[in-house]
Specification:
heterodimer, A: 306 residues, mainly alpha, MetI-like fold, 13 helices, 1% strand, disordered N terminus, B: 454 residues, alpha/beta, D-Maltodextrin-Binding Protein, domain 2, six-stranded mixed β-sheet, four-stranded mixed β-sheet, 20 helices, globular
């Protein structure tokens, strides 16, 4: 952010020092508005949450300082631990499956240019544009007793498999996870498609001349070029899985039992229904740390392979 | 309660010192923000704890704000009728959806802009404890509410506390419409299963459930995704646990427990019915509203729900639907049912407690009773309203019997704010046979212990 580079070198030797210093500070001035907004609406609330996590507070009356007790409870409480485990299970459905599906569709769509690509992209992107609450409500109907899922199963003679998917102890988490797969696959595909378009077409040509089939071509040419996009997709979808709230809240509200209870839901419930703002804050802090660690690992892995 | 303040301050001293350290460490926070960040320190000191003893409304133009979450049509009609009688009082209704209302209740009632009158809900007793809601005991005597309102409906609004101004029981709300849960039945389907009349005992009811199952019908519709499951459990508990013990538990009386053989028996029955296939397959994935809609389509012979569904069922099914309270062990047993009321509390920040009192008293009049009854609720003053017809008559009769037997118990989630979630997920496990009754009750008692720890 320096304003000096365009000056002649001789001039710089005599007058550069104060000017450069002024320039440096001017640079920060440009950042200031964004920084102020970021501090006020992201950093301060985060610090406030961390601070509240050290209190036992019902949200109204005077809080009581309890130190790290809330964190002890987060790690000691079976339901809270269970919720973290559920969130990690959701990573499979929110992250791994969409990335796999995204790679496959991107590989299929990238190899040849066909008419109507824009329509495909629009269709696959659609779940991203629909509000998650609407997605949840729609899937609740689809998964219902007489919903489309069960109707389809009955049509093909699988009457024995039908059930109320969201009310079934064994199926609920998978059912919720698949909603996430549906939402995030399109996003992953879009990311990968845009990555594929950066690849020099001559590389594909060279591969084909060397006799590479579609699979070989994908593995040797396309995939290595998608490393950056993979890291982005991984980060975004993992955060979506671990911080999931809306889909779960709308479809199962954590049930049946605690089968689909996720940390995001518990934070909300503890703070607003149960009057345990301190414990909710502690859980939120732990969740944020977990997400940061995982995202850090993902980023390190994608970089070290380069 | 005024004497409680200084120790409260003293306790705050330590966190505040650490708060200062935290602020310094953060280095980003303006120093002035420190005080505001101490959780709860910004809470306003509440006003008086009790309504005055005088009831006369001052002769001036008064505007009251009423915040509520149930039955907007009923509230509008009640306000219109009240304003006709009191031309100088204006009531501004502020409607919120139930979940919004409950979530914001604490913030709303402790803010400067608290409404003068607010619908009673879980959490109101905590607010009463801290003096944010007025004790109405003086008006109870002055207006003679004990004569015009069933005692049980008032008992539900005392938070189990004594009044500081009258020495009698405290009162933190006045009921408009009353509510009650029970079993609805589809008469046509019941006849097909050979069921001729409502059961007189629980054993008879179980026979009917079995008969329905045998006839290839779904016996009992339960909307356990939200609160239908806990209504079922509570309905069974009503006949195993003594109402006094139950009240002690809900009110947080010291030493009360739900880990009793009686509660075990009720929980085991919920499991047993699930094992026998009495519930709709998707009970755990179906909300109460959806289970009611399925019942109107003839998906089950019986349905557990409350009087609030009666209007909808009467419209959809006409004479094909009936209602009975969950029966007990013997035909002569008292009628016991879970119920509560749409009640209203008065904020301690109101400037017009007399006018608020006048409105609350209006709720007990025959005119208000007619409006309440027209809107599908049970008026406190049953004789005042026109006798209802069809399933609404069944509900009213069941309620009359339960009140006569002193058998209206409150909903179990009133025991603690966190109890609703514990009950909802716990009963889902019972229905699916995924938990031992003892572990279920233990989880409930944990929530109770945490709430009533002191």
């Amino acid at each position: 952010m320096s304003s000096t580079p365009s000056r002649p070198a001789a001039d710089r030797r005599t007058a550069s020092r104060p000017a450069r210093r002024r320039g440096r500070w001017r640079g920060y001035l440009y950042v200031l508005p964004a920084l102020a907004v970021y501090l006020a609406f992201a950093v301060l609330p985060a610090l406030h949450t961390a601070y509240l996590s050290l209190f036992e507070w019902d949200g109204v009356t005077l809080g009581r300082w309890v130190g790290l007790d809330n964190y002890r409870e987060v790690f000691g409480d079976a339901v809270l631990r269970r919720s973290v485990l559920n969130a990690l299970t959701l990573v499979v459905f929110f992250s791994f499956l969409p990335i796999l599906l995204g790679l496959v569709t991107a590989g299929l769509l990238a190899r040849y240019r066909r008419p109507g690509m824009a329509a495909y992209r629009f269709l696959f992107m659609l779940p991203q544009v629909v509000p998650l609450v609407a997605v949840g409500v729609t899937w609740r109907w689809l998964y219902g007793d007489d919903g489309l899922v069960n109707q389809a199963l009955r049509t093909v003679g699988l009457d024995g498999v039908t059930r109320a998917w969201l009310g079934d102890f064994d199926a609920a988490l998978i059912a919720v996870g698949l909603v996430g797969t549906w939402v995030l696959s399109g996003l992953c595909m879009m990311l990968f498609l845009s990555g594929v378009q950066k690849v020099d077409p001559s590389l594909y040509e060279a591969a084909r001349l060397d006799g590479a089939g579609p699979v070989r071509e994908f593995v040797s040419v396309t995939l290595p070029h998608l490393r950056g996009e993979l890291a982005v997709a991984m980060t975004v979808t993992m955060v979506a899985a671990l911080a999931s709230f809306d889909i779960v809240y709308v479809t199962t509200n954590g049930g049946p039992g605690e089968q689909t209870t996720v940390p995001g839901l518990l934070v909300y419930r503890l703070a607003f229904s149960d009057g345990k703002v301190g414990l909710a804050s502690a859980l939120a802090v732990v969740l944020a740390c977990l997400i940061l660690v995982l995202v850090f690992v993902v980023n390190r892995l994608s970089r070290s392979e380069e | 309660m005024g004497t409680d303040r200084p120790p409260g301050r003293a306790r705050r001293a330590r966190p505040r010192r650490r708060a200062a350290a935290a602020c310094a460490a953060a280095a980003l926070l303006p120093l002035a923000a420190c005080d505001a960040l101490t959780p709860g320190s910004a809470a306003e000191a509440p006003g008086p704890r009790s309504v005055p003893s005088r009831t006369a409304v001052p002769d001036e133009d008064i505007t009251l704000r009423l915040q509520f979450a149930d039955a907007p049509l009923m509230v509008d009609a009640l306000i219109a009728a009240f304003e006709e009688e009191h031309p100088r009082i204006t009531i501004e209704p502020q409607y919120k959806t139930f979940s919004d209302y409950v979530k914001n209740l604490k913030l709303t009632m402790t803010s400067d802009s608290a409404p003068d009158i607010a619908q009673f809900a879980v959490g109101m007793t905590d607010l009463a404890e801290d003096g944010h809601v007025l004790d109405l005991a003086p008006y109870r005597e002055a207006y003679g509410w004990d004569a015009s309102i069933p005692p049980v409906s008032l008992d539900q609004l005392t938070a189990g506390r004594a009044s500081e101004s009258t020495g009698g029981r405290a009162l933190f709300g006045v009921p408009a419409g009353l509510s009650m849960t029970g079993i609805y039945y589809n008469k046509e389907l019941a006849a097909r299963a050979g069921i001729e009349q409502p059961p007189r005992t629980l054993a008879e009811f179980e026979d009917q459930l079995a008969a329905a199952e045998e006839a290839g019908l779904t016996p009992l519709g339960v909307g356990a995704l939200d609160s239908g499951g806990l209504h079922l459990w509570a309905a069974l508990l009503n006949h195993t646990m003594s109402t006094d013990d139950y009240w002690d538990w809900v009110n947080g009386t010291e030493g009360a427990t739900i880990e009793t053989p009686q509660a075990m028996a009720a929980s085991e029955r919920v499991i047993e019915w699930g094992r026998l296939g009495y519930y709709n397959d998707s009970a755990n994935g179906t909300g109460q509203v959806d289970s009611t809609a399925q019942f109107t389509r003839g998906d089950s012979v019986f349905l557990i729900n409350g009087n609030w569904a009666a209007g909808q069922l009467a419209t959809a099914m006409g004479d094909n639907v009936g209602f009975f309270p969950m029966p007990g062990g013997h035909p002569a047993d008292p009628v016991v049912a879970s119920g509560f009321s749409v009640s209203y509390a008065v904020s301690s920040r109101t400037e017009h407690p007399e006018a608020a009192g006048a409105f609350l008293d209006f709720l007990t009049t025959p005119e208000a009773g007619r409006i309440i009854s027209d809107n599908g609720f049970l008026p406190t003053n049953a004789e005042a309203a026109e006798p209802p017809r069809g399933v609404l008559a069944d509900v009213a009769e069941g309620h009359r019997l339960a009140v006569a037997d002193d058998g209206i118990t409150t909903f179990p989630d009133f025991a603690a704010p966190a109890m609703l979630d514990a009950l909802r997920s716990g009963v889902q496990k019972l229905i699916a046979g995924r938990v031992e009754p003892a572990d279920y009750l233990d989880a409930l008692q944990d929530v109770w212990d945490e709430q009533h720890a002191e």
